[in-house]
Amino acid sequence: MEPKVKVRNLFKIFGDAPETALERLKQGQSKEQILEETGHVVGVQDASFDVGEGSIFVVMGLSGSGKSTLVRMLNGLIPPTSGEILIDGDDVANCSPERLRDIRRNKIAMVFQHFALFPHKTIAENTAYGLKIKGVSAAERREKALQSLDQVGLKAWADGYPSELSGGMQQRVGLARGLATNPQILLMDEPFGALDPLIRREMQEELLQLQRSLKKTIIFITHDLNEALILGDRIAIMKDGRFVQVGTAQEIVADPADDYVSAFVADIDRGRVFTAGHVANDAQAVQLSDDSQNALKAMEDLNRNALYVLDGERIVGVVTYQDLSTAIRENGKADGALADVLVSDYPVANRDAQLHELYGLASTGLPIAVTDKNGSLIGVVEPEAVFAQLSGDEQTQDSVRSDTPPAA
Amino acid sequence: MLSPADILTIPFDDWVNTLVRDYLVPNFRPFFRALQVPVTTVLNAFDAFFQFIPMVVFTLVLAFIAWRVVGRGIAIFTLLALTFIDMIGLWTETMTTLSMIVTSVLFCTIIGVPIGILVAGSNKLWSVVRPILDIMQTIPSFVYLVPIVMLFGVGMVPGIIATIIFALPPIIRLTNLGIRNVRGDLIEAAEAFGSTRWQMLWEVQLPLALRTVMAGLNQTLMLSLSMVVIAALIGAGGLGLTVYTGLGRLDVGGATAGGVGIVLLAIILDRITQALGEQSGVRTPSLRQMLVSVFRPRGAVTGETNKTGN
């Protein structure tokens, strides 16, 4: 599928003669060198990325990394020095002012760090601003604004003024204003950066919740890697105007591209990045009707301490090597030993369960069954694999199958 | 002692004389005469209007507006001050002065606000306009009275034109300031939603700059009042003429009476326009809302201010 937003070789250089600075940049001079010799500030250099429809693309970087410049180029608030920005195939960087205005009115909305609500307009008027600009009638504006405010839980405040609201509420209005015109793309420039941590967490949850039903294409800017990992389907790490790494949360945490990214990733709660699916082994199991000796042999071959037992497709429990071998030794070659030593109170988790939800399950010492939504076994998580992944220790992970490729 | 004048003397005064007398006056007099037409029309309309309204009606209406906009104190003051002016026999002169001032403020607004908006949008333009405003404010008004008389003649309208030149800078400066001070992210937000230049101005910039613009209007009004006596030198009437005549005849009483009239008028107008500016500052409503608030029942106005106060 053609990406919704497609950016190729985007450059932004601030100064009087950006072309000359661009030449120097392409010849390999550094950002600092150009600033010193020509006084030009390199905002963004050679950014290329695609954002698929309905996905969240997070650009993460510290202040001065060029992330705000980048997002402002996407809706033409800042004209790029060179490069292409294609939105549904329309080149935003090189279109007429009328076309650009049309795109801004109908396709892209923006949410700002400091909310940027109009203090002289009521909350409903603020929400309806984009509609008013488009020339929508007053009654329809009001109706849509109320709908949009309802989505963020602020319908009751429609006739108040922004100054009466707390920061979190103001940003909800900012979001409602962005959603009111029903845009396909939402640009969010550090929208939760000015909020305190608890409210920020709440807003992130709410955004994800809204996104599940709205399916907008979101480009989200943040300086907080945790936020990026929580929200982003894909994440770009930016430094000095350049993309250092682009990938999924797991790719970035498991395999940082350089020391800069590693330094960030070091402080990350890996338990919230990876899921059971990432650390699960193949779903090796024995059937309830199988011979006990075969089950023991299978465990030895697979080098595992326990195996799940299925009855057809259904999981009936788990047997440990120790229990099974003891049972066989005591009872001689007994049939149905498998059923006797079966632990039916086995730990189970969903494929999408985050690792931090598995800590308790892992402490039972038994492997955790990973199931799909029908309850069928699709994998098994060894308790050691959970902690190996958390510690980021590559050696211990060797025995564990993972979706992420090993570090280069 | 060697002085530069020994080497070269510059006949600067002759140059200006030549420029004005031999070039501007013969070539551009019709042009300057034509400029007077709108001012004359507006002035006559206002003058006819203010002279037509009976004193009692005017006083009550102004006191009512003062009550709505400012409060009871200024309303009572307006009532007493206007009655006093009438009693000392200066009602007609006061109304003439008022129509001159209203005319000059109107033209200052019509000229000044758009210029202020334009220069707010361009640093280059502002760097050109700024020194001109500095000159307009610092040059003694007596200096340009002479060329104004030569180009426009004498009378009420040249007096108003001199007043406009003197009173125009503050409204340009403060409109410029008000628009420039609108927060950058609000401009960005308006732009991001696809506002045209005009929508941006009307929906965001002007409402948010309104308080500052109103402060400029107040300054312009006060400067206009201070020009009343000087304008009388070139034939403008009203209270200024009373003062000027008193001065010429060493008639202390007459000059003082005219002066008191000007001061009373100044206080009333100052308080009302200042209050309008502050009222708009609380939540910077649109100009329409502001005008509506003047005519709304008193209770509604206080209710609004209570709500906005928290």
Low-confidence stretches of chain B: 281-285, 298-310
Number of structurally distinct domains of chain B: 1
**Percent of residues of chain A in helical segments?**
25-40%
Strand content of chain A: 15-25%
Oligomer: heterodimer
Give the strand order, joined by hyphens, for the main sheet of chain A: 6-7-8-3-9-10
Describe the protein in words:
The complex is a heterodimer of chains A (408) and B (310). Chain A has 408 residues and is of the alpha/beta class. Chain A contains 19 helices and 16 strands. Chain A has helices at residues 18-26, 31-38, 67-74, 97-106, 123-127, 129-134, 138-151, 167-180, 197-214, 225-231, 249-254, 259-265, 276-279, 292-302, 321-331, 337-340, 359-362, 383-391, 394-397; strands at residues 5-14, 41-51, 56-61, 82-87, 90-91, 108-111, 185-189, 217-222, 234-239, 242-247, 285-287, 306-311, 314-320, 348-350, 368-371, 377-381. A six-stranded mixed beta sheet of chain A has the order 6-7-8-3-9-10, sandwiched between helices. In chain A, strands 2-1-4-5 form a four-stranded antiparallel beta sheet, sandwiched between helices. In chain A, strands 11-12-13 form a three-stranded mixed beta sheet. Chain A starts with a strand and ends in an 11-residue tail after the last helix. Chain B has a single domain (24-297), classed as MetI-like (MetI-like fold, Orthogonal Bundle), CATH 1.10.3720. Chain B is 86% helix and 0% strand. In chain B, α5 (91-120) runs parallel beside α8 (156-180), α5 packs antiparallel against α10 (197-226) and α7 (141-152) crosses α8 (156-180). Mean pLDDT of chain B is 87; it is low at 281-285 and 298-310. Classes of the chains: A alpha/beta (408), B mainly alpha (310). At the A-B interface, α4, β6 and α6 of A face α9 and α10 of B.
